[in-house]
Design a protein that fits this description.
Blueprint lengths: L13 E6 L2 E6 L7 E6 L7 H18 L2 E7 L3 H10 L1 H4 L5 E3 L4 H5 L3 E2 L4 E2 L1 E6 L5 E7 L7 H16 L27
Parallel strand pairs: 3-4, 4-5
Antiparallel strand pairs: 1-2, 1-5, 3-8, 6-7, 8-9
Length: 189
C-alpha cells in the first residue's frame, strides 16, 4: 500500500533555479519558514505547460501577498528555463523561481516522475512553513490546472493552520462560515 504524501516533510534536495534574470541555488531549506507551492510540469517549450505557468504568473502577486512563494519545477535545466523565459512572452512574465531538475531528484521526491519519459506529471504541492505537505494534486499530462483554485486551497490551508478546531467545507471562501467538528454535527449537514 502506498503511503500518502500529505503531512509528510519535504525531502532534501539541491538544485539551481532561474529567477529574476540570474541563476540561484535552491534547497529544501529555502521552502521553510513560509508557505510554498512546488508546481511540477512536464517540459519547457510545450503546449499546456505555458498556459499553466502563465496563469500562475497572473496570480503570483496575490500569492505573494498571502506570504506564499511559488517554485515551478521541470526536469529541464535552469539554462533551458532561461532560454524559454527569454523567448516567450507568456513565460517572460514569470517572476517566481523556475527550478531545473535534470537528475529528477525533486520530481521523484514528490512522486510525480514518469520514469519511462524522464518527465514530471502535473503535480502541485502546498507546503506549510514547517515543511509539511498540506495539499497534493496530481493531474495527467493533458489536464491543465487553475491557479485561482490553488489560491482558494491555500487560503483554506492557512485558515485551518491558524484556527484550531475549525475546518473549511467544500468551496469555502475567506469570510464564509467554517465548521467545528463535533458529535452535534453528525447527520446535521
Amino acid at each position: 500500500m502506498h503511503q500518502s504524501i500529505i503531512n509528510s516533510t519535504i525531502k532534501p534536495f539541491s538544485a539551481t533555479a532561474f529567477h529574476n534574470g540570474d541563476f540561484h541555488p535552491v534547497t529544501e531549506q529555502d521552502l521553510l519558514g513560509k508557505w510554498s507551492v512546488v508546481f511540477f510540469y512536464p517540459a519547457d517549450f510545450t503546449f499546456v505547460c505555458p498556459t499553466e505557468l502563465g496563469d500562475m504568473a497572473d496570480h503570483y502577486e496575490k500569492l505573494q501577498s498571502m506570504g506564499v512563494e511559488v517554485y515551478s519545477v521541470s526536469t529541464d535545466t535552469h539554462f533551458t528555463h532561461k532560454a524559454w523565459h527569454a523567448s516567450s512572452d507568456t513565460i517572460g512574465k514569470i517572476k517566481y523561481p523556475m527550478i531545473g531538475d535534470p537528475t529528477g531528484t525533486i520530481t521523484r521526491n514528490f512522486g510525480v516522475m514518469i520514469e519511462e519519459d524522464g518527465l514530471a506529471l502535473r503535480g502541485t504541492f502546498v507546503i506549510n512553513p514547517e515543511g509539511e505537505i498540506k495539499v497534493a494534486e496530481v493531474h495527467d499530462l493533458g489536464i491543465g490546472r487553475s491557479a485561482a483554485e490553488l489560491v482558494r486551497k491555500i487560503q483554506a490551508a492557512q485558515y485551518v493552520a491558524t484556527h484550531d478546531g475549525e475546518v473549511c467545507p467544500a468551496a469555502w471562501q475567506p469570510g464564509e462560515e467554517t465548521l467545528a467538528p463535533s458529535i452535534d454535527l453528525v447527520g446535521k449537514i
